[in-house]
Structures are given as C-alpha cells and as structure tokens.
C-alpha cells in the first residue's frame, strides 16, 4: 500500500477498522480509543485469564511461541501497510503524519493482537529508528525493513556490571584490526537477547579520551564466534534478561553504526526513543491497573470499608492524573511543540502507579498473595508485585528521572561531574584510589 498525499484521516481510520475487523478479534466493544491502562482489561470476575504479570513467567518454548504469534501478526500488519505509517517513504514507510499512527493505534487497541514482552518494542521502537538516524544507506536497507517486519530482532547491548545509570562508563573494548573490530567485554540485563539475532552495542574504542568521547556503536550479529548469551532467572520467574559475553568477537567495519567516537550520541538517541516508549506507551500497559484492583475489592466484599475506599479513590485519581498528563504531552506533540515537563514526568508517574497498585493489592490480599490456592484473580497478583520494581530501574531509574526533572525542568544545579574532562583511563585510576 502506498500513497503520495495523506488520505483523509477519517477515511484512513475507517479502512484500518475494516482491516482489523477482518484480521483480528475484537477486545471489548466499549473501550474508547483514548482510554489507557486505567480502563483496560476490566475483568469479568472469574472469566478468562487472570494474568496481571509485568514480566511473564514462561518457559523458553512458551516464550518462542509467543514471539512467533507476535511475528505472524506484525508481518500481516506490515504487508497491509500499517507497520510503518509515520516512517519516511525512502525508508519504506508511508510518510504519514503522527496523527495517522495515533488513529491506527486507537483502532488497534479495540482488538486482541499478540504482543510479546520487551523484545519486539525494543527491536522496532528503539533499534530500528536508531539505525534510521545513524545508519549508512546500506545499513538502513539491510536492517530497517527486516526489523519492522520482525523478520529479525535486535536488542540493546548497553548496560554492563559497572555501567548502568552511568552508562558512559562502559568498559567493553572495541579494538580496530584493519577492516575489522574486535569486541571484548560483558553486557548485562539485555532484554530478549536469547531470541535476538542482533544487538546494538556501545563499546570503548579509546581509553585516553574522556568517557563520553571514547565510545563507538556497533551492530553485533549474535551468530559470530565470541558472542555468548546467558539467561538470568528473575524473582518473578521467567528469564527476560540476559548476560551477553563478548570474547574476541570480530565484526567488519561495515557494522559500525555512526562515526568512530560518536557512540555516546548514538546511545542517547536510542535512549530518547526508549523514554518516549516508556512514558505513556511502550510497556505502559504492563501489569494490573485500577479497574482490576477495584474488581478484586468488589470480589472480596470490601468496597464499603472506609480505608479501602480511600485507597481506591487515591489509585483512581493517580491513574487519571497520569492519563491526563500523557494526553497533555501528546497534545503538545500534535501541536508541533517540543515535549515539556509532562514527558519527563510520564515515566515516574507510570512506575509510581505500578507501585501503588502493588501496595493496594498487598493490603487487600495479605497472605493470599503468596499462597496459590487456585482462586482466580488472587495469587496471580504476585507477578505484578514482583515485576513492578523492574520498571522503576529500566530505561533510567526513578532517581535518574528525578535528576533529569531537577536539572532540565526545574533548572536546579547539575550534579558535579568530576570525570567529564579527564581521560577515561585516568578517571578509572582516580576512582580506584
Ligand atoms: C526491566 C529491565 C530491562 C532492562 N533492559 C535492558 C536492556 O535491554 N539493555 C540494557 O543495556 N540494559 C537494560 N537494563 C538495565 C538498565 O538500563 C539498568 O539497570 C539501569 O540503567 C540502572 O543501572 P544499574 O542496574 O547498573 O544500577 P546503578 O546505576 O548501579 O544504580 C544503583 C542505584 O543507585 C541509584 N543511582 C545511580 N546513580 C545515581 C545518581 N547519579 N543519582 C541518584 N541515584 C543514583 C540508582 O537509581 C539505583 O537506585 C534493564 C533493566 C531492567 C530493570
């Protein structure tokens, strides 16, 4: 499907709806396009799945199965022309305004479509646009379409055991050898690496430059010698994260993403897409929301209890405030303005609300949260409670988000950065003293 001028948005919405009706199962007729997590998934007690998992406790086979149905859906969507609506035409997109993407997403939200954890959004929402921003023509041709069609999957090889919040401290080395690079080091917390074929890594090519300047980005194929992926078992079950060991892994220079020494800018670009994803969208519907907590309170017969009523009112208010804040941010973008404080606060509100949901269900369920009696909609909350803290860390921890709000929104003095202008090797030496 291709268009030279934007179609009428209502006609577009209508044709998307017709296509979705023909290709996907409707969810709930009454959900409006603008509803968010606060309204989604209001259960009919005892019916259907009671999962409110933030990270799913699945075996490798189940995880592979989930990815394969998500891939089948994405390929169908791609082939029908709905997967790259707002992407430039020369990169394979339809070049439509963001309003068309919002219109499509609003329609799709009324249908049940497969989704599979963090890897597909990372691959399509973070890695593909970063390649669009920094890739050579060849890299764009080789990666963007396959990533957006989920023919291949890419993950984010940024964090290391001693570089998370302070990401610019990565120590994975990239050593030039003729037309090749040799990568050595360890990455950690890599979401979805077990099922990815590629990783976007930042590595240090020069320890004598200041830490932000000695970094270069690479597209790492997981099938080369010297790349080893080891899953990490989570407290909520499952193994969404991995360690990735790079041992003398050789890559051609053609897989360098962006110029030598521009790795930090590549990383910041990718992290910018990650923040956009996690504020109100991305993983924004993970876990349980207000409606499910309310349904639980009703089932337990405690909605008349004053303390419970107060708790539910607070939860509802907080979800609404987050929802309106996200809408304000979306309205600013729609009006062509740059993201304001609402964008910076989005992630904080989202993770705070996930924590409030955990507190509320812990109060309501007490020991039933920890003992699996088989009762629908009770023990299942354990997977929300154990998973929610992860998102307070992922994509920039709460504290780092507060630093950003303090410095960039409130204009408070920046944190002292003593290692900014010394070589990385010297900064490391000073830190060890
Ligand atoms: C669910 C999840 C998915 C993830 N997926 C990926 C992935 O796919 N790829 C990837 O590369 N990484 C991934 N990560 C790693 C993630 O980016 C890091 O965990 C995160 O950046 C924090 O780094 P750290 O774990 O090293 O903690 P640290 O940076 O060591 O922080 C420890 C504590 O100190 C606090 N702290 C640190 N610096 C400051 C400061 N300057 N001011 C105030 N407080 C501070 C932090 O808030 C935190 O509470 C994922 C993490 C999670 C939880």
Can you describe this structure?
- The chain has twelve helices and ten strands.
- The longest helix is centred in the C-terminal third of the chain and has 29 residues.
- The protein folds into three domains: 84 residues, no CATH class; 113 residues, Beta Barrel (Butyryl-CoA Dehydrogenase, subunit A, domain 2); 141 residues, Butyryl-CoA Dehydrogenase, subunit A, domain 3 (Up-down Bundle).
- The protein is of the alpha+beta class.
- Strand 8 and strand 9 form a beta hairpin.
- Helix 9 packs antiparallel against helix 11.
- 43% of the residues lie in helices and 13% in strands.
- About 4% of the residues have low confidence.
- The strands form three sheets. It has a four-stranded mixed β-sheet. A four-stranded antiparallel β-sheet has the order 4-5-9-8, with no helix packed on it. A two-stranded antiparallel sheet has the order 1-2.
- Flavin-adenine dinucleotide (FAD) binds next to strand 3 and helix 11.
- The site of flavin-adenine dinucleotide has 17 residues, from strand 3 and helix 11.
Quick synopsis:
The protein is an alpha+beta fold and 433 residues long. The chain has twelve helices and ten strands.
Write the layout of secondary structure elements.
Elements lengths: L8 H15 L1 E2 L33 H20 L18 H11 L2 E2 L6 H16 L2 H12 L5 E4 L15 E5 L2 E8 L10 E7 L10 E7 L5 E6 L8 E12 L3 E2 L5 H17 L10 H11 L5 H29 L6 H25 L16 H10 L6 H12 L14 H9 L1
Parallel strand pairs: 3-6
Antiparallel strand pairs: 1-2, 4-5, 5-9, 6-7, 7-10, 8-9
Helix pairs in contact: 1-3, 4-5, 4-6, 6-9, 7-8, 7-9, 8-9, 9-10, 9-11
The protein binds flavin-adenine dinucleotide.
Flavin-adenine dinucleotide (FAD) binds next to strand 3 and helix 11.
């Amino acid at each position: 499907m291709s268009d030279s001028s934007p179609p009428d948005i209502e006609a577009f919405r209508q044709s998307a709806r017709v296509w979705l009706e023909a290709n996907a199962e409707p969810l709930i007729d009454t959900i409006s396009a603008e509803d968010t997590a606060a309204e989604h998934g209001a259960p009919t007690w005892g019916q259907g799945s009671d999962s409110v998992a933030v990270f799913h406790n699945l075996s490798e086979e189940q995880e592979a199965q989930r990815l394969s149905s998500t891939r089948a859906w994405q390929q169908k969507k791609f082939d029908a022309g709905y997967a790259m609506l707002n992407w430039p035409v020369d990169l394979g997109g339809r070049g439509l305004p963001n309003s068309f993407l919002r219109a499509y997403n609003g329609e799709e939200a009324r249908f049940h479509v497969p989704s599979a954890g963090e890897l597909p959004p990372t691959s399509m929402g973070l890695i593909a646009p970063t390649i669009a921003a920094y890739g050579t023509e060849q890299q764009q041709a080789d990666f963007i379409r396959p990533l957006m069609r989920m023919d291949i999957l890419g993950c984010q090889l940024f964090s290391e055991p001693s570089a998370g919040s302070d990401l610019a401290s990565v120590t994975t080395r990239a050593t030039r050898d003729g037309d090749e690079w040799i990568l050595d080091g360890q990455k950690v917390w890599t979401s979805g690496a077990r099922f990815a074929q590629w990783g976007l890594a930042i590595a240090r090519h020069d320890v004598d430059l200041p830490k932000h300047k000695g970094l270069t980005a690479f597209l790492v194929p997981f099938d080369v010698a010297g790349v080893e992926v080891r899953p990490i078992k989570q407290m909520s079950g499952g193994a969404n994260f991995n360690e990735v060991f790079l041992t003398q892994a050789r890559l051609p220079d053609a897989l360098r993403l962006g110029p030598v020494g521009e790795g930090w800018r590549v990383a910041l670009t990718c992290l910018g897409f990650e923040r956009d994803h996690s504020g109100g969208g991305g993983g924004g519907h993970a876990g349980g929301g207000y409606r499910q907590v309310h349904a639980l309170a009703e089932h337990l017969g405690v909605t008349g209890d004053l303390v419970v009523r107060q708790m539910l009112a607070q939860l509802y208010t907080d979800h609404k405030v987050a929802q309106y804040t996200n809408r304000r941010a979306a309205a600013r973008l729609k009006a062509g303005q740059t993201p304001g404080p609402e964008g910076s606060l989005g992630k904080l509100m989202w993770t705070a609300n996930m924590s409030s949901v955990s507190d509320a269900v812990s109060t309501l369920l007490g020991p039933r949260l920890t003992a699996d009696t088989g009762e629908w909609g009770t023990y299942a909350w354990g997977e929300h409670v154990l998973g929610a803290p992860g998102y307070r860390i992922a994509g920039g921890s709460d504290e780092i988000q507060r630093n950003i709000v303090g410095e960039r929104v409130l204009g408070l003095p920046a944190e002292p950065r003593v290692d900014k202008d010394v070589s990385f090797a010297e900064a490391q030496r000073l830190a060890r003293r």
